[in-house]
Structure formats: structure tokens, C-alpha cells
Amino acid sequence: MAICGIAVNQEVRPVVAAEIEGMVSALAVQPDWRGGRKVEAKFGFGFTSPIATTSIWTSPQVAVSCDADIYNQESLKRTLKDLPGDANLACLLGSLYLQHGQDFLKDLRGVFALAIWDLRSETLFLATDRFGVKPVCYSATRAEIVFASQPRGILASGRVAKAVSMEALVQYLNFTAVPAPLSAFEGIRKLPPATCLIWKDGTAKTQNYWEMNYSENANGSTEQLARELLGRMEEAVNISSQDANDSRLGCFLSGGTDSSSVVGLLTRIKKSPVTSLTIGFAEERFNELEYAQIAAKHFGSELVVSRLGPDDAFRILPKMIALYDEPFANSSSIPTYHCQMLARERGIEIMLAGDGGDELFGGNERYRTEQIYGLYKKIPGAFRRSLIEPVMSHVSLGGSGLAGKLRRYIEVSNTPNPERYFRWSMLQHFSPENILGTAMPFRNGHSDLLAIARSHYKAAPAHAELNRLMYLDVKMTLGDNDLPKVARTAELAGVNVRFPYLDHPLAEFSGRIPVELKVKGLEKRFLFKQATRDLLPKAILEKKKHGFGLPMGMWLKTDAKMRGMAQDVLHDPRTYQRGYFQRDFIEKTFTAMDHDETPYYGDILWPFLVLELWHRHHVEGKAS
Fold first, then answer.
1. Distance separating alpha carbons of residues 47 and 197, to the nearest angstrom
2. Which of 24, 91, 189, 190 could link 87 by a cystine bridge, Cβ 3.0 to 4.6 Å?
3. Which residues of 378-401 are buried (b: 16+ CB within 10 A; e: fewer)?
């Protein structure tokens, strides 16, 4: 589903139905999506949906449009007086706003993007959910504000010109996705998660209504906290699935701890086997079918398996390029979409996913790496500065022996975050001057490539370094990358994906867990594993993290179709007329790929290929 709208001041041209209709049409993911609208002179709302529904409600005081999946609707209804028995979700949200004002957002349990035009004050109110599962972007001036679930809706209004944001594209190359609040287009911004926007008298103001706090004030023994964590996880899975028809409900199952625990808890709640779905690859490094099968057997789950190869990826890639309004280089969108289509073909309408577990409970490998670098800081500073570092300064950073490794370890340990955390990002690892086109911003090193990441890192309501990095991942890894990957592909596949571990009471509890129980020594997910030790098979608890990864780098190197496409696009002179990146860097990367046995250089080429394909489809308007 998607929403859109326009609000204007009195002195500019009024909103007309054709504008909203054009926005609705542009936002429809499939030809059979249905829409609706409400248009008056000063505002117009529209929506489009794959099912027959009404997502607009009006009263003499307010007009509401929403794309929402709220799990606690019944308890919310009980707080209201005189709510019509046939009230739709937009009516419920509008009534809550009228009774409680903007504070009603704090009572919502679920995901949402909503717009409210307050006719009493001629104010537009926009909001998105706590983790940004349901997106909203906007373009605001003193005269008008245009908003939509995706940039294409805003551009279709005819009120905002299409112009590529070079700053956003540089950030994309560094992070593989455009981080909020930037968008790929000038004049359009994304509303960050847990944020609302108020546009009144030509002024737009944003404010957070919720924050992921890390108080670490949970009391109790490790055993008590583990039991509480498991109970809260089960509650989150229960509330995320309670309204679903069991025959229409399924789970992603990669074989990792998050997806396996969701399957296990759902099985416990339903007291019967559940359907799970997974994707396999011929490339053993990326294949996790063994662990998905272990988990499925343990829980008695019906496991639906499909294998995905380079021919499938080649066929799906144009759909992914067309689907994302911004360049998006998370190649695991391809197997994610493939898995969702597998579910849809079997009549599954709602899928539960384990996203968020890594960022909340300490599951990312980078957290363990940070612990290793943190060990150096435990050595007294005077000893480090007066003895160790002067001695090691005589050792070459490029040395291959133990001394060289130690020198590099010290160098990285002394690098502050977030620079250390993102040292392998494209434009941190390679010189921007050797990659970016001559007219691109940030090329000369005079600007801060990590400004957005740094703002999250500094703003984190946390004392422990690990919690600051987890907060950074909640904002960027989840908000900018993983959630758009799953939620957007789900729209195309025609399924509704829910994320139980992002239920905000569970997320808030994770912030109260002492940091040493998240990563204990070098053991990731310590408390999570304690909580699930009687739920999950031992093999799942001990396996290394993987997920729905894709061997795209290897396919770009070895598969004839994928390699041919990459060469055709990245050797095409038109590609370099954009000025986004330099041909010399690309050609050197192709050469290096041919002399390397790993997927490393193919993975480097992938974001550049996606960027050019995105430009051709979304800027030039040509099919990929």
C-alpha cells in the first residue's frame, strides 16, 4: 500500500484531482492495485492498495490517510467514545488524534505511515513508525508540501522537478543505500523513523516521538533476564500473528538464530507446525539449507525450499531496479523477493521475519570485532604511548608478519568511531578522488562523508560504545537498508511481512539489558542464546551468522550473462557522461577481478552497476 498528498497555502494554486490521481497511479506497484482520493482546494489525499480497502477518513475536523498495520486496534478502540462500529483504520487513527493530539502515536503498536490534515488549524501532520518500516518522503516549501510513500509519487504531482542529488549518490556509494533524511532527488527528503512532521503556515518542523534508549537498568540475574527476554520475544511473535489465518501465515527461515527462534516461538504459540520458506544456492559459501532443514525438523515445520541461480537473478534484477526509486545495492533483495514469491504462490499472505535481532541483541560480527579492538584500550594509556606505540612505529603497516599485523591492529584500535566502524565502506577504504567523477561532492576530502553516521553515533542515548554502534545500526543498517529491502519487495510479491523483534516493548527491553550480556567477551548474543537454549537446536545456536546473502560478486565474475551485462553497462561511454564515477577505477577493478579467485572485486563492481541501471530507468526513463 502507498499514500500520497498535497497541502497548500491560500496564495498558491489549489489542489486538483488530476494531481492526486497521477500520484496514486505512479505509486501503484502492480496494474491491479486499487486507489482512492479525497480532494479539496487546500489539500488532497490519495492511496493505492493491492486489496479492496478504504484508507482515507474525513470528518469536519480532520482528514486522514494511512498505510498502517496496527496490532493493538481492539485495545485502542476501547479508549475512544462514540467510535462507529464499522470504523476503518483511518477513522480509528483520526479519532485517536482528535482525542489525544499528537501523543496518540505513543500508543500505537505496529507499523504505519500516516497523514492528517487538521482543518481547524490548516496543519499537515505526517508520521512514520518507530523503525521506518512504512516510509514517507516529502518536499516542503513555504507555499506547499507534497508527500508520498515513495519519491515517484511526489515527482508525479508535477509540482516538484526531477533533479538527481549528487550528495545522495555519494552517500549511496559509501553505504549501498541512500541514508535518511536524504533522498536520491533534490528537494525531496525522507522522514526518518520515529519522526513526525508538522507543516503549518509554510514552515515544516520535524520531531522525534520515540527513541531507542540504552539505560542498561534491567535488574535480575542472568537467568531471570533470559527468562524475561524469552517471554517478551514470545509476546512479540504472538501479537504479530494473532490476527492471521494460520493457513495464510508463514515464516522466513534462513537457519540463523533470529528466523529459527521466530519459527520456534510461533510453533509454540499455535501449538501446531507452521510453514517456513528458505532459499538455497549452489555456491556452498552462501548456502544455508542444512541449517534451515535442522531448524525445520526440530520444530516440525513444513519447509518450502527453492534454489536460486544466476539465471534467476538475471531475470529478477530488472524488477528490483524498477522497484526501488533510489539506487539500492543490497543484492539480497533478489533472494528475499524470490522467497516471498514462493510464499505467495502457496497462498501465504503474512510472513514473519527475524530482522532486528542482530541490532537489538548483539548479533553482528562487527560487534565482536569491536570488542577485539577495544582490548587494546584496556592497556594503560601511558604504557601504550610511551612504549608500545614508539616501538611499533618502526614497523611497516604493510608488513606480512606478526609485527605488521600488530602494527595494523594498533593503528585501527586508535582510530575513533564511527571511522573505525565504517573503515571498509567504499569511500572510506578507497580514495574518493580515485572513484568519484570530477564534479561530484566530497571528492576532494573537504567534506565529512560520515556526517550522517556521525550524527547518529553522537546522538545515541547510550554510554557503552557497543550500544552506540548498535544504535547506529538500528538507524542505518535496519532503517536505510534491511527494512526497505524486505518491505519493498514484499509489496511487489503481494505479501505482508511483519517483524516481531521490532515490536517496540521488546526493543525497549533490549535497551535495558546490560551491554556485557549482549556481547560477553567475544561471544555474541550471549543473553539471547541463554534465553533460547531450550528452544533452539544446539547446531543453530553455534552456527555462524549468514542470512539471505547472494553470491552476486562471484556471478559477476563467472556467469556469462551477469558478466556480459556488467561489461556492457560499465564499458558503455554513456555511463560516464553522468559524471558519477570514473572509468579508470572500474576498468582496474575488472582487471583485478580477473586475477582474483574470490568474489571481492565483483562485490565492488555491483554498486556501480546498480547505480547506472537505476539512472537509466528512473532518470532517463528507459527499461533496465
1. 19
2. 91
3. eeeeeebeeeeeeebeebeeeeee
The secondary structure element, H or E, covering residue 206 is: strand 203-208
pTM: 0.95
Three-state DSSP state, 478 = helix
Give the pairing of strands 249-252 and 203-208.
unpaired
**Contact between 180 and 478 (Cβ < 8 Å):** no
Question: Cell digits for 586?
Answer: 572500474
Q: Is 78 helix (H, G, I), strand (E, B) or coil?
A: coil
Cβ-proximal residues to 400 (8 Å cutoff; 6+ apart), any chain? none
Q: How many residues appear in the chain?
A: 624
Give the C-alpha separation, 215 to 217, whole Å: 5
Does residue 547 register a pLDDT over 80? no
Q: Residues 206, 473, 500, CA angle at the centre, nearest 5°?
A: 85
Specify the pLDDT at position 623. 53
Query: What integer best gives the mean pLDDT of the chain?
Result: 95
Name the pairing type of β-strands 34-39 and 144-148.
unpaired
Distance CA 549, CA 570 (A): 24
Residue pair 477/176 in contact (Cβ under 8 Å)? The answer is no
| HSE (side-chain half, CA atoms, 13 Å) at 171 | 24
- Report d(CA 23, CA 601) in Å as an integer: 40
Of 264, 236, 233, 263, nearest in space to 251 by CA:
263
Share of the chain above pLDDT 70, in %: 99
* Positive or negative torsion for Cα 53, 59, 65, 71: negative
Q: Can you say whether the dihedral through the CA atoms of 365, 420, 449, 473 is positive or negative? A: positive
* Alpha-helical regions (H) of 414-525: 426-429, 432-435, 451-459, 465-473, 483-493, 504-512
Summarize pLDDT for 237-289 with one digit per residue, the tens: 999 999 999 899 999 999 999 999 999 999 999 999 999 999 998 787 777 89
Strands (E), 438-570: 496-498
**Mean pLDDT value across residues 523-540:** 97
Cell of 553: 560478486
SS3 140: strand
The confidence score (pLDDT) of residue 53 equals 79
Quickly count: other Cβ atoms within 10 Å of residue 411's Cβ: 13
Nearest to 53 by CA among 67, 63, 40: 67
Half-sphere exposure of 553 (CA within 13 A, CB side): 19
Number of helices and strands in the chain (H, E):
27, 17
Q: Are 251 and 349 in contact (CB under 8 A)?
A: no
HEC readout, 277-321 = EEEECCCHHHCCHHHHHHHHHHHCCEEEEEECCHHHHHHHHHHHH
311 neighbors 286 (Cβ within 8 angstroms) = no
The torsion of the CA quartet 222, 232, 66, 359, rounded to 10 degrees, works out to: 30
- Name the grid cell of 519: 556481547
CA-based nearest residue to 191, from 114, 117, 122: 114
Q: In the sheet where 496-498 sits, what is the strand order?
A: 302-307, 275-280, 249-252, 350-352, 496-498
Set of cell numbers at residue 587: 576498468
DSSP letters for 211-250: ---------S-HHHHHHHHHHHHHHHHHHHHTTS-GGGEE
